[in-house]
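Subject: DNA-binding transcriptional ArsR family regulator

B.,
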Amino acid sequence: MKSDAELRAAAALFRVMSAPMRLKIINALCFGEKNVGELLALIPTTQPNMSQHLNSLYKAGVLGKRRDGVLIYYRIDNERVVALCRAICAEVSVSVTAG
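Prediction pasted inline below.
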């Protein structure tokens, strides 16, 4: 049986990943690091909204970032999140196409 601390950590991770916009960001970053402008070209939203979601993912330890001049590049820092997203999205895809 998992400890309370482990279950709280899992719940916190699920909360961070519960927003469709954050899943879109994670999906986009599965193919390599990108800056905010590159993410905005792939995901239709406002720059402030994108930055807010990126910050939430960064604070949760899902994303890492690096500065290159004036640009900040984001990358996946937690590969377990990628595996979890792929597994859940595959399962949802199967149930959506079947139902």
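The mean pLDDT is 89.

T.
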